[in-house]
Amino acid sequence: MKRTTVKIPEALDARLRHEAARRGVTISEVSRAALEAYLDAPAGRRRLGAAGAGRSGREDISERIEEILAAEVGR
């Protein structure tokens, strides 16, 4: 395995260390998994990975918003 040094901000380092501790794995394992996930993702999905995550498939939501909100608040 090849060793690589990467300079990262302190806040990111803290998040990385926290995640490794939470998972019970090494920082290297979390870093490798993150790099693989990023590099394996289709190029167009890298920036907006969550775009469309809430898409319902319905086209009448904006027309029915009052009805939907009333039903949710009434619960």
From TrEMBL:
SUPFAM superfamilies: Ribbon-helix-helix. It holds the Pfam family RHH_1. Gene3D superfamilies: Met repressor-like. InterPro entries: Arc_rbn_hlx_hlx, CopG, Ribbon_hlx_hlx. Signal peptide: none annotated. Residues 2-40 form the Ribbon-helix-helix protein CopG domain. It comes from the Bacteria. CDD domains: RHH_CopG_NikR-like. This is CopG family transcriptional regulator. The lineage of its organism: Bacteria, Bacillati, Actinomycetota, Actinomycetes, Geodermatophilales.
